[in-house]
Amino acid sequence: MVPTSYFLILSALLFTIGTLGVLVRRNVLIIFMSVEMMLNAVNLSFAALARHFLDLNGQIFMLMVMVVAAAEVAVGLAIVMAVIRNKDTTNIEDVNLLKG
Predict the structure, then answer these.
(1) Sign of torsion, CA 36 38 42 44?
(2) Nearest Cα to Cα of residue 37 among 14, 59, 20
(3) What is the distance between the alpha carbons of residues 19 and 24, in angstroms, rounded to a whole number?
(4) How far is CA 83 from CA 2, 73, 88, in A?
(5) Is CATH 3.40.50.720 correct for 4-87?
């Protein structure tokens, strides 16, 4: 049986990699993938803690995070596709559609 601390360390590592991906990269698609990695890290920690405490609340929160991730992908990719059609780039520095 794998200790819960291993899962939490892996979750923290994945969350850190996702955060660095959001902060460092400039490609919108990679930023979305980094946000998804962060959400999956949170799911892993919820699952590990739910198993550790023998409680189903962590799994219920996992389902909520999956719903939020699915909505984020649907709306976010639609916005990205619209921006790519107008600007022909995925670089976040080149996109200034919200400036007045």
Answers:
(1) positive
(2) 14
(3) 9
(4) 45, 15, 7
(5) no
- 57-72 confidence digits (pLDDT tens): 999 999 999 999 999 9
**Predicted TM-score (pTM) of this structure:** 0.86
CA distance 99 to 9: 40
- Under 8 Å between Cβ of 18 and 34: yes
Number of helical (H) and strand (E) elements in the chain, helices listed first: 3, 0
Residue-wise pLDDT tens digits, 18-51: 999 999 998 988 999 999 999 999 999 999 999 9
Token pair 């995070």 is found at 65
Q: How far is residue 11's CA from residue 80's CA, in Å, rounded to a whole number?
A: 28
Cβ 46 vs Cβ 64: under 8 Å: no
Tokens of 86: 């107008």
Token duo for residue 77: 């990719």
Q: Where are the domains of the chain?
A: 4-87
